[in-house]
Amino acid sequence: MSVAVNVTSSWINGAPVTTAGATHQIIDPASGRPVAEYALATPADVDNAVDAARQAFPAWSKATPAERSAVLAKLAELADEHADQLIAEEVAQTGKPVRLATEFDVPGSIDNIDFFAGAARRLEGKASAEYSGDHTSSIRREAVGVVATITPWNYPLQMAVWKVIPALAAGCSVVIKPAEITPMTTLTLARLATEAGLPDGVFNVVTGGGADVGTALAGHRDVDVVTFTGSTVVGRKVMAAAAVHGHRTQLELGGKAPFVVFDDADLDAAIQGAVAGALINTGQDCTAATRAIVARDLYDDFVAGVAEVMSKIVVGDPHDPDTDLGPLISFAHRDKVAGMVARAPEQGGRVVTGGVIPDLPGAFYRPTLIADVAETSEVYRDEVFGPVLTVRPFADDDDAIRQANDTVYGLAASAWTRDVYRAQRASREINAGCVWINDHIPIISEMPHGGVGASGFGKDMSDYSFEEYLTIKHVMSDITGAAEKGWHRTVFAQR
Ligand code: NAD
């Protein structure tokens, strides 16, 4: 499946628009060659997109749940019909292995759309009751308005779906800015949504850089909520821009997931799980296993086992279904990862396998395991966002939990044990939005995703994500019909 070389620059009010920004080339990181080019949007396009979303909001928010559900169900159907195109675009712009795009990114996105097509019809307020005795109180949950959303490059389609679809299901209209290096699948999603019958202006895409277009969108006065997925540093800038107008934000930020292996764990399962959890999407995954923390008795065997599995990983052409690991997103990012690994030995780390740039044309890097890493070292504390796993031993269960929580992040974690009490204790005491037991990475549309601490706040996926896109309104209706209400005498006496 080939990829179009000219990409629509933005999608505003139900149609492609030609924007006046600089021409931007999308580079295939597996080859370093351009795969497409398009004109970036400008802050003026952001104004137009927000205006379109504002105009479209009243009618879409008043559409019945069944009407909104029908559009989303049709969108899921169209996305499925266009799965080959979505897979080809995702592989071309990110370099992710076609197996991952085919079995994870695209079907996961379609399932998420499908889930919200159903969930749209289950939205409700709360049962009424007479709390004061003289009034019926009820709770209405109403669409919050225009949602501005900004997404990263690592899972471009899934991140767009996670933000846009629950907002649409809730009755909001949306303006999304994807990362400028990976806009293709977000634009295709918007086109398919229009084909599915979504009214013009409900789903708008502005492509463009963070500094101008991203800043303009995050700080726009006419949006109601700003949702963001990306780095912690940028997330805080987005929050500050939104705060100027007092707008709500939701932030899905970085991670540094611990992977805790207790001494009773199934060692083979833990080794297998650590490699899969660390290398998914070339390690460019906010929930990726990055800090293995292993019982001292199992430590040497774990290190040897992970190194052996990692050494057999096939790195190369992402279009080849036999490829396990694609390139990093860019040469600049590959060099950043390589720099962090190169500095690790100065800080006590021992590179057991990997740490090398293979002789391939793209931004590739071999899977890397760094043992004995110091708790203070950069590669242990900071997000690497590459195919790099660190490993440290722990002395006892308390030390394991302490090390797991020794991070500013709190997005995801896993604990490996056959002891039900340890599993329960770890799931309670590890500070993260998700704790897996004897696995690491699986996500599911019905369950929420989102972090604590420097990993942000708020939820994507599941019914919980609706809270980001709804406001709660209390309606209090007098049921006495009396001109003189009981409480009036607290203000004035009848004379
Ligand atoms: P990034 O923060 O650099 O960019 C994210 C988005 O913000 C892009 O669209 C970018 O153009 C835009 N942006 C940049 N500067 C901006 C500004 N000043 N104002 C407004 N928008 C701006 O992140 P990235 O490099 O694209 O993605 C990798 C990061 O995303 C990692 O930190 C990763 O952990 C995180 N991530 C988190 C989750 C999660 O669910 N928590 C999921 C995926 C990725």
Automatic annotation (TrEMBL):
The keyword ATP-binding does not apply. InterPro entries: Ald_DH/histidinol_DH, Ald_DH_C, Ald_DH_CS_CYS, Ald_DH_CS_GLU, Ald_DH_N, Aldehyde_DH_dom. It catalyses: succinate semialdehyde + NADP(+) + H2O = succinate + NADPH + 2 H(+). It comes from the Bacteria. The active site is at E252. Belongs to the aldehyde dehydrogenase family. This is Putative succinate-semialdehyde dehydrogenase [NADP(+)] 2.
